[in-house]
Amino acid sequence: MYNLLSGLSVLEVSSFVASPTVGLYCGQFGAEVIRVDHKEGGLDYDRYMLADNGRSLAWENLNRTKKSVALDLRSGEGRELCVELARKTGQCVTNLPEKSFLSHAAMADGREDMISVRIMGWHDGRQAMDFTVNAAAGYPLMTGPADWDPASAPPVNQQMPAWDFLTGAYCAFTLLAALRHRDATGEGAEIRVPLGDVAIGTLANSGTMAEMLHRGGDRERLGNAIWGAFGSDMITRDGVRFMVAALTAKQWSGIVEAFGLAQEISALEAELGVRFADGDTPRFKHRDRLLALFQAVASRLDYAELEKRMAAAGTTYERYRTPYEASQDPVLVGQNPLFGRTPDNPSGVDYPVARSFANMPDRARGEPRRAPYLGEHTEEVLAERLGLSSGEIGKLVDSGIAARSDEGRDYSKIRTLP
Hints:
Blueprint: E1 9-13, H1 18-28, E2 32-38, H2 57-62, E3 67-71, H3 76-89, E4 91-94, H4 104-108, E5 115-120, H5 130-137, H6 162-185, E6 189-194, H7 195-205, H8 208-215, E7 230-235, E8 241-246, H9 249-259, H10 262-272, H11 280-285, H12 287-298, H13 303-312, E9 316-319, H14 323-328, H15 330-334, E10 339-341, E11 352-354, H16 378-386, H17 390-398, E12 402-403
Parallel strand pairs: 1-2, 1-4, 2-3, 4-5, 5-6
Antiparallel strand pairs: 3-12, 7-8, 8-9, 10-11
Helix pairs in contact: 1-6, 5-7, 6-7, 9-13
C-alpha cells in the first residue's frame, strides 16, 4: 500500500478479472475504491476455487483494498442509486455493456466532467473473454513441440488470463491519464477499452504481426526455445528441468563459462563460419546444435552442482516449479517484501498476500488489506456519498433495495463444491 492516490475515489461496477484489476491496482496506491455489486453478489462472487466456507478465493484477492456496496441492481431504484453513486464520485470503471443502465450518458447527466472507463469484448460489440481473444490473436497455435505437424497440431492454451490482467493495467493507466487531462482542462472522458483490441494490438506492438505479414506465413513452433535468441529448457542428470536464457553478450559468456564449453563452442564456430558472441542471429539460427552441446553437459551433472556454476558465472536461469512449489519458495515468497498477510480474510484462509508490485525504496510499502465482505460498506457509502440518513438507509435495507454485510454467512451450505 502506497498513498500516492490518496484523495481519489473510484466507483467500480464489475466482475471477473480485467475490470476488478483496475480497482485493485488503484487501491494499492491509496485510492478509495468502492465496488458496487448486486445484493446477492455479482457474476464472479462464487467463482471457483471456493474455500471451505464457500467464499471465492479469486474474488477475495481481486477485490482487496476495496469497499463493498450491495444494491438490488435488478430493480430500478437500486440502479438509480448506483448511477447516482457514480455521478457523485466522478469516475467509474465497469465492464457492463454501454447500453446497460450504467451508460456514460446516464452517469454524465448533470456531471459534464464525468470519467468512465468501460472494458468491452470486441470493438464492434461482440462478447469476448481472455481465452477467446487469445484464440483469435493466434498465440495458442504458436505454442507446442517443434516436431508437431503444423496441419494437425492442436492449440495450446495458457492457464493465466494474461489479456485480462494486461487490460486491467492498461485501463488503470487510461483512468489516470483522463484524470490528468480533467485536472488541466475540466473535461470529462468516456473511454472504452476492448479486451480483443488489447490482444490484437499487442500482436502488432510486439512486431509479431509485421513479422508474419513480411514472411508471408506463420512462425514455426519452437517448443520451449526462445524466439529470436538462444534459450531453452534443459534437464539435469537427476531429472531437474530448468530454463536458461542468453540474450546479451554477458548472458552468453556466462552460460558458456558455467557449462565449460569454450572449446566446443570455438570448434562449432569454425565449422559453421560464425561467431556466436556477435549477437542473437547466429545463436538463434544454430540453436539446435548449441542446445545439444549444453544439454550434454547438463545430462552429466546434478542440478545442485550445475546451479552453483551458473550462479557463479552470472547465468540467467531458473528451475521449473509447479505453482504449489512457487507458493512455498522462500526466495520467491517467504523472504520477498512483496508479500504480507491478512489473517482476517473472509474466506478464513491464511496465505501470503501481494502488496503493490512497485517498490519505492524511500517509502514503506504498508500492509496489504483484506477484501471486504459483500455489502460491508453499504451504509457508510450511501451516507457519505449520497447524504442519506440512517432512517432512509434502513428503509432501503428493509425493502431489499440495499443490503448490509454478509459477514457470518456460511456459503458452504448454499454452494456445491466440485
